[in-house]
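Aggregate trends can hide what the representation actually does to any particular protein. For completeness, the protein is quoted in full, as a sequence line and a line of structure tokens.
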Amino acid sequence: MFAATLLATFSAVAPGAAHAQTAPESEDSAPTAAPIVVTASRTGAAAPTTLSAESIARLQAPTLLDALNDIAGVRAVPANGVGGGSFVSIRGGEPNFTLVLIDGIRVNNATNSQGGAFDFTLIDPALVAAVEIERGPASAVHGSDALSGVINIRLRDPQRSATQIGGRAMLGSDGERGGNGTVAQGWGSGGLLLGAAAYDSGAADAGSDVQRGQGIARLR
């Protein structure tokens, strides 16, 4: 079954191909292979924790950030300072030491010290089928940006031959406001899932207002 997921707040840049000039081989030279080093450990990787959609619903979490904070070894709180967003730490590591995936697709940037520029507060729990949290180093499998662990968000599939619409809104003090919406349409063996969220801090001072938005689309 084909499925494609798109996160609208991020863009991919395809690097150009690099060509290196190689020196001609000498008749007297023999090819040499680089040594391969294999390191073994008696300590196995910790089993991942799965947070199901049913568990998230029981928590009545307004955002995915609130649901993650219920997992042992995970600290998930709103970020302080200008820009807001979310602060997610696994086992005390910095936020950019945690790799974030959506349907197995990398969505954060480890070079961003403020959590990889991914905002969990803009993820509507209604979009999520499950969240898999892998605590502990996973760099051997996922790369250096998985030093603390991995969070993989699996989006739900639209129900077949059904239309689903949902959303919620938030209004705070001093003009703070936000909301999200979800639309899902199924047909036969396929379907389309769309989600969007936005936040405005409502600050009256020029240059102090913070606005964030995020959109997700999944085609099955």
